[in-house]
Amino acid sequence: MPLESDSLPKPLSPELGFSLSPAELEEMSQQLQGCAPCLEFIRSLETTVKLCKDLHGAEHPAPLDPSVHEQLLRAYESVRASKQQASNET
Questions:
Q1: What are the boundaries of each domain within the chain?
Q2: When you count CB atoms within 10 A of the terminal residue's CB, does the N or C end of the chain come out lower?
């Protein structure tokens, strides 16, 4: 899965103080090919960026109740720990 320059969140690049040349993008793409968790993260990031762009101008929902936020955070941490444990077993 080669990286496309438009798959990276361009608005973040200036804020982070870097930008990638086509050669750097190609090198990064080559290095990521053997890293399944990296590719999964990139796909997730691409989906997140797309969803955020789709929300532009949409009505925003009310903030989550703190108890719901905590429940979601615990679920996320549980999944993350399970993935870490599984990767340690391989």
A1: 1-59, 62-90
A2: C
